[in-house]
Amino acid sequence: MKRIFLATAFFAGALSAAPAVAQQSKVGDWTIEKRSQDTHCNASRGYKDKDDENRDYVIVITYSDKAIVIVMIYDGWEWDKVGEILRADVGTDDADIMSKAKWEVMDKTTVRGIFEFDQSIMDRLSKAKRLTLDFEDDDDDSIEMQIPRAGEALAALKFCEENRK
Q1: CA-to-CA distance for 9 and 7, rounded, in angstroms?
Q2: In the prediction, which pLDDT does 138 show?
Q3: How many other CB atoms sit within 10 Å of the CB of residue 162?
């Protein structure tokens, strides 16, 4: 999916015409990869939701001992200002993760959250089936993204991080 590539490219800092994949594996419909131009491994998942006009949903997660980065792409969004900072409560199907978290608009359909590393966030994500962003005063842009098998994907991401070349 082109949107997964675009999202993972945000981690690299610049788009490359032909990215080389040094390490890659699959967990269900998640892709775990360490591309040669990236410092860290990424876990990405994309899908179309037939109940939402067949729109694309993409999530990419990466982390280091200092930060957790989550990129979410939804082709139903139409953000106006690249670089704008939005605030949203972040949660899963059974736990609140963070209130009023900062998300940066990357393009008209993409937001990125960069958070200080906290193992409890990773633990909550690993148990989740859905990740939600509830934007302040903006129910139309709030989103619920399906993240099945997140625990397995994050375990594979951890393995990739521990064995990256």
Answers
A1: 5
A2: 75
A3: 8
